[in-house]
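Archive entry. Fields below.
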Amino acid sequence: MPNVQHARSGPVQSSNTASPFWIGGQGPDDLWIATPCHIKDHAIVASISDLPPRLFFCRDTTAMINEDSPQPLKVTIVGAGIGGLATAIALRRNGHLVQVLETSEIKTEIGAGIGVQVNALRVLEHWGLVRENLKGVSYDGITTFDSKTGDGVARRWLLPDMDQNRSLLCHRKDVHDELMRLAVGVEGEGPPARLHLGRRVVDCSPEDGTITLKDGEIIHADLVIGADGLHSIIRTSILGHVQTAPASGYSCFRSLVDASKLREIDDIDAEWFTEGLSGMRGLQIKEGEGYRMVVMYLCRSGTLINLVSIYADPHQDNPDWSPVGTREELLRIFHDLHPKFLALLSLSDTPILRWQLRVLPLLDNWIRGHAALLGDAAHATLPTLGQGAALAIEEAGALGCLLPRGTRREDVPGRLEAYQTLRKPRGDYVNREALEQATEPVKRGLYFRSHEVQDYLLRHNAIKDAQEYYEKYFGSGA
Ligand SMILES: Cc1cc2nc3c(=O)[nH]c(=O)nc-3n(C[C@H](O)[C@H](O)[C@H](O)COP(=O)(O)OP(=O)(O)OC[C@H]3O[C@@H](n4cnc5c(N)ncnc54)[C@H](O)[C@@H]3O)c2cc1C
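PREDICTED_STRUCTURE:
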């Protein structure tokens, strides 16, 4: 029978090892799932329902409280999308006590593909990504086709020193599952983050790090991260007013098709899709019926085809706008494509997801007191550069560097200032550039032509930058 330990929500220093591990909780049924940072043998095994709060069985009977150890930060992350989970990974690894509140009852990423570009992979690998888990298809460039004639031009934009580290085309669920493993899994550094589904946050007091849930519960934290997407409630609290993301006038159909169905269109020739440069296939559609664009690629180890069909949609603000479309509607809007492209689009199963593309204006501010915005909550934009989720991952990586183990509650506002200084210019750049490269004819497709834009986006090393910034302004010599 192990001893009962009196444990505070905070670090416990084991007497027989120099490595701390973390235990804590708000009540007997509310155990911070505690995993030792490095040592499996010291795992907490249970909380005891009939004992007062913060009493736990602990397998390490020699553990004792070290009052001088720095307390971990209590972190509340709002939203369990790619940005929220990435932040949970970054901060649990530093020993902080992280909980993620997600409004959905069942959190799954929508059935669609996503390009995970090298700048995001660099951060994920820093956290211990198992690359095979992403089941990615190598994303080396794009082949664009004239939509009418079917003629293609391949643009290879793999950067010279990236041969070992290629961007990947993935299914969102595979990315989300890997992030979930790294965030809440018992393996890995620091205490696993706790995910609470069906918890809708309705208010936040950024100055003191308090959030209010729909059921009235109030949670106090040292740090609140608003990773709550396009319609962020934390954004309202930080800015002090509602900032909506206006309709861009573009919507898109998104569907996934079983790649084995390609056999059904063999007689039309699918080589344009399967052969040649590994990566995206894009259609240039000349103006006439409003801007339209189609992007297609293989993902999930080549077993699925991801189709994204963007079109000018004047009905976005109509109350009867529907988030589902039909194959007939898709084929009507893209009726004038070359038959080989129509053959692929027509493989889509209905109903097809329809997505509104909305763009946030540049925000004055991403931070206030103990709260900060991250991901789409800070810079939702058009998918032209395919960098929205990548930026969220980079931002999470930066937060991890700026809030290391030992950060105190009173340090948080200053570290968030640093986060904003470091990250906002890049977020603002992607927000504007993605919009302009879609809407200004002279800039269309610039990403695929310009080495300057590619270098800026893909060579970026968010961890290195943030580590250097931390060393300069907060490191021991600062
Ligand atoms: C067509 C398309 C293609 C794209 N392709 C790419 C690509 O190839 N590469 C790339 O990097 N990016 C791409 N993006 C962008 C990318 O999808 C987004 O930038 C990214 O998913 C944003 O993640 P997030 O975590 O910030 O927000 P979200 O994914 O929106 O997550 C927010 C979460 O917060 C929850 N939430 C909201 N409000 C509350 C609340 N009040 N309380 C609790 N929970 C709440 C939501 O339920 C949700 O789970 C694309 C976008 C589109 C539309």
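CURATOR_NOTE: The pocket of flavin-adenine dinucleotide is lined by residues 78-84, 101-104, 114-115, 200-201, 227-230, 233, 252, 254, 308, 355, 357, 375-377, 383, 386-390, 392 (CB under 6 Å).
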